[in-house]
Amino acid sequence: MANEILGTDVVVQIGIIVKDIEKTAKEFAEFFGVDVPQIIETEEYNKTHTEYKGQPTKARAKLAFFKNFKNIEVELIQPDENPSTWREFLDKHGEGIHHIGVFVKNIDQKIENLKKVGIDVVQKGDYTGGRYAYMNSTEKLKFILELLENY
Amino acid sequence: MANEILGTDVVVQIGIIVKDIEKTAKEFAEFFGVDVPQIIETEEYNKTHTEYKGQPTKARAKLAFFKNFKNIEVELIQPDENPSTWREFLDKHGEGIHHIGVFVKNIDQKIENLKKVGIDVVQKGDYTGGRYAYMNSTEKLKFILELLENY
C-alpha cells in the first residue's frame, strides 16, 4: 500500500557514510564482483544550495553508487569537514548506514506532510536533475529518511 | 548479476536496533499507516543454539517485522542484556540500522565463501523454519551482512 505521508512504498537507496571512499568502493566492488563505480563529488554551494539545520553550508561529499542489487541502490558517502548530516553522523557514530532513501513526487508537499507529524528537514539541497531532503526522522524511525525527487 | 560469494543480488531485509520495541513499532505503524505487527520474542537457547563470537549465549531479542514496503522488509530488534551483536550495537552506537539481510541457499557454503575473503561469523542461530548468520563484514562493507536460510 502506498504510504499516505510519502506517497510511495518502495525503498530505493541505502546510504552509507565512509571515511575513505576510494578504499571502500574498491572493497565493495571486489566483494560484489562488479566494477568500481565512478567516484563523484557533489557540486559547490552555488549549484547545490545546501542547507544544514536551516543554515547554508559549504559541505560537499564524495559519492559512489552501487547498482548491483536488483531491488535497491547502495550509495557510499565520504563527507568533508564542513557541517552536514554526513559529517555529524561520522563524528557521532563512525562509519555505517546513514539513511534510507525514497523517490517522491512533489517533495515540498511531502516535506509538509512530514512536518505535520513532527519530522522536519535536517539537510536539503539540489543536484543535477533533482533535489533531496534528509529528514530528522531519527527519534521516531531510528534512521534518517531521505526524500529524493528527480525532475 | 548474481554475486559469486552470496549467490544472490537481492536485499530482503533492513534490521534496526531499538531500545523500546513497543514504542517504536507503534511509531512505525502510525507513520507508515499500517497495523502494529505482532511483537515476538526469540526462543530460548535450547531452540536457537545462539552463538556470539564463537560462544553459546542466552541472548534473546524482541522482534517486529514490517512488511509494508514493496521491495524490502524492516525488522525492529530490541536486545536483552546478554552478549549479542544486537546488544553490542546498541551499547556502541545506540539505536539505528544494524544489518542488511539476504536470503541464501546452502548457508554453510556461503559462510565458507565469506571466510575466504576474510569475513567470519559474528553470531549465528536457528529460528523456527530456518537459520541465520550475522557476518563480521563491518570493516569491509561498513554494515553487518545477515545471511538467512529458510528450509
From TrEMBL, chains A, B:
Top-rank taxon of the source lineage equals Bacteria
Q: Provide the VOC domain boundaries.
A: 10-150
Q: Which residues form a coiled coil?
A: none
| Pfam families xrefs | Glyoxalase_4 (PF13669)
Annotated keywords: Metal-binding
- Keyword Zinc on this protein? no
Matching entries from PANTHER family are given as: METHYLMALONYL-COA EPIMERASE, METHYLMALONYL-COA EPIMERASE, MITOCHONDRIAL
Protein name according to UniProt: VOC family protein
